[in-house]
Amino acid sequence: MKKDNLLPSYLERDISWMYFNRRILQEACKDSVPLLERMSFLGIYSNNLDEFFRVRVASLNRIIEWGDKSAVKEAKNAEKIVKQIARLNSCYINDYEAAVDTVYRALSENGIHLISDNEADRDQLSFIRTYYRDKLDGLIVPVWFTAVKRLDYESDENIYFAIKARKACEKPKFDYAYFAIPVKGRFVRLPDRNGESYIMYIDDIIRCSLDEIFIGSGYTGFEAYAFKFTRDAEMEIDNDRRNGILQKISKGIKSRKKGEPLRFIYDEKMPQDLLKRVLSKLDLENNDTILKGGRYQNHKDLMQFPDCGRKDLKFKPMPPITRSSLDVRKSILDLIRESDRFLHVPYHSFSHFLRLLHEAATDRRVKSIKISLYRLAKDSRVVKSLIAAARNGKKVTVVIELLARFDEESNIVWSQKLQDAGVKVMYGVEGLKVHSKVVFIGMKQGSDIACISTGNFHEGNARTYTDCILMTAARRITEDVGRVFDFIEKPYLPITFKELLVSPNEMKKRFISLINAEIRNRLAGKPSYIRMKVNHITDPVMVKKIYEAAYKGVPVDLIVRGNCSLDTSRLPEGCHLRINGIIDRYLEHSRIFIFASGGQEKVFIGSADWMPRNLDNRIEVITPVYDPAVRKEMKLIVDYGLRDTVQGRLVDGSGDNLPWSCADPLPTGSQEALYSHYSDMEADESGNGEKQDKDHGRQH
Question: Catalytic one among 344, 348, 435, 536?
Answer without folding.
Answer: 435
